[in-house]
Write a structure and sequence with these properties.
Rossmann fold; binds NADPH dihydro-nicotinamide-adenine-dinucleotide phosphate; 46% helix; 15% strand; binds magnesium ion; alpha/beta
Length: 395
């Protein structure tokens, strides 16, 4: 039996992972399931799958979790330290699918066991790519990308030498606002931004898709995973979301990966790797699709892509700064303190402030330095949001 842990089990990716493993219960021994606020889901899955331990990141919810799992034989724990302890428990395969930079340390703890880390949490690589890749090499661990575009590239690269790759292209649906008049974007609401045309995902990544900060994160993720220079990583709008990524080789041949927009393909690929096994995902019907269309992203509509290029060119801890500023700006947008287009403005200003802070972005890639850059960017972004919302209300 394979020992499996899921960090972020109650979320969209976590639930899709559980959907797959629950179809073959005899094959897996569930070590740890972790969640946050959703105690009901966490307890139900831990009980059903017979997990060793269920952990909520929320200290204040320990008693709720304990009550929900009374008599089940599942151990319970709560808080950040308990989450890291659960992540470090011996397991053959760990899914890292907590949302945001909060997933970095648990993912790192799991990686240090030297087994397989299925990585959905792209923020881990955006914030600390060189540190994570070095740690994986040192521990003999395998990182399998779960982000659909990166799983697609990984699959397209099988049997190929990375030195023959001329470029990779990530596709993007363009999100909720791809066809909105530009002038209306500033007034878009969180509810409008949280509606995705093709994929069913968590709220935060769905809004990041509308702003294309998701693609910005993914370009950096691709750079870290595949070690390609930034000018060989591209993004193209593909409204149908059937082609997930393309790899172009030096001989001019391009290999594309296609499939229905269902994350259980990428999750299941990582679960069965290095083999393939049948998965319960819809099959591609090209005749029904009719046409696959592509267009270049409009950088005026999607400034996040320009920011991603600047961050990749800058290197160092600029990715950690960008991500933390983006997470803070997204919180402010969700709280209706700033508008949709103001998120990118905040991120740009925070990057400028961080640049002026001596030794911050150029600090060596240690966990402490990444966390310091993250804290600095969150505080700077909160100050920026406060002054932007003061300006708006005229106070
Ligand atoms: P969700 O918001 O649906 O789920 C997030 C999970 O993380 C939940 O289990 C949540 O617990 C938990 N969580 C939230 N905050 C914390 C915290 N501070 N500490 C510990 N746990 C926490 O996110 P998604 O599943 O959509 O995304 C997860 C990751 O996968 C993200 O990095 C995303 O970018 C990436 N990804 C997602 C895709 C998708 O299709 N959804 C596609 C590609 C990548 P609870 O809900 O109980 O509070
Ligand atoms: Mg993706």
């Amino acid at each position: 039996m394979r020992r499996i842990s899921i960090l972020g089990a109650t979320g969209s990716i976590g639930q899709s992972t559980i959907d797959l493993i629950a179809r073959d219960p005899g094959a897996y021994a569930v070590v740890a399931l972790t969640g946050g606020a959703n105690i009901t889901q966490l307890a139900a899955d831990a009980r059903r799958l017979g997990a060793q331990v269920a952990v909520t990141a929320r200290d204040d919810l320990l008693e709720d979790l304990r009550a929900a799992l009374a008599g089940s034989g599942v151990a319970v724990a709560a808080g950040r330290a308990a989450l890291l302890e659960a992540a470090a428990r011996p397991a053959d395969w760990v899914m890292s699918c907590i949302v945001g930079a909060a997933g970095l340390e648990p993912g790192l703890a799991a990686l240090q066991q030297g087994n397989v880390l299925a990585l959905a949490n792209k923020e881990t690589l955006v914030c600390a790519g060189p540190l994570i890749m070095a740690e994986a090499r040192a521990r003999g661990a395998t990182i399998l990308p779960v982000d659909s575009e990166h799983s697609a590239i990984f699959q397209a690269l099988l049997g190929e030498d990375i030195s023959s790759v001329e470029s990779v292209t990530l596709t993007a649906s363009g999100g909720a606002f791809r066809d909105w008049p530009l002038a209306d974007l500033a007034r878009a609401t969180p509810e409008q931004a949280a509606t995705h045309p093709n994929w069913d995902m968590g709220q935060r990544i769905t809004i990041d898709s509308a702003s294309m900060f998701n693609k910005a994160l993914e370009m950096i993720e691709a750079r870290e995973l595949f070690g390609l220079p930034p000018d060989r990583i591209d993004a193209v709008i593909h409204p149908e979301s059937l082609v997930h990524a393309l790899v172009t080789h030096v001989d001019g041949g391009t290999i594309a990966h296609l499939g229905a927009p269902d994350m259980r393909h990428a999750i299941g690929y990582a679960l069965n790797w290095p083999d393939r096994a049948p998965l319960p995902v819809p099959r591609l019907d090209l005749a029904a699709a009719g046409a696959l269309t592509f267009r270049a992203p409009d950088l005026a509509r999607f400034p996040a892509l320009r920011i991603a290029r600047a961050v990749m060119a800058r290197g160092g801890l600029a990715g950690a700064v960008m991500n933390a500023a983006k997470e803070t700006a997204l919180d402010a947008f969700l709280a209706r303190r700033i508008g949709f287009t103001a998120m990118a403005d905040t991120v740009s200003r925070v990057l400028d402030v961080a640049e002026a802070e001596s030794g911050l972005i150029d600090a060596p890639f240690s966990l402490d330095n990444v966390l310091r850059a993250d804290r600095f960017a969150r505080k700077t972004a909160r100050d920026d949001v406060a002054s932007a919302s003061r300006d708006n209300t005229g106070r």
